[in-house]
Model the fold of this input.
Amino acid sequence: MSADSRRQLQRVFGLLDRDHDNFLSLSELNRFMAALQLEPGTLEDFRAFCEQTGASPELGLSVGDFTAAYAETPTEKLDEIILVSSIIISFVTNLFSTYICTRVTRSSFLKSTNV
Done:
């Protein structure tokens, strides 16, 4: 895996790690699966994947575990995975942030106008 691919996977990891605990939980990993249009994993799948990568199922996948899982992936496929997941995750994150900002602004406006 190239250094650039490793950095890109670390970026994807950062986008997925919603609670910023430096580990990916099953639900956070399932966001990645959804971005790739794959079926979400079950708890059994997650435990098996953690065991396979040497991660603790209780903690989740570290950035090292996550990138190591893709070490044998052909470069072309890895580039596609990184590009698609980055675009979709960024879009969803931005969409959600915009929604929250709109709700907060609207609520603040309504309170200030006593409507």
Summary: The chain has a mean pLDDT of 76. The CA atoms of residues 104 and 110 lie 10 Å apart. The chain has one domain: 3-112.
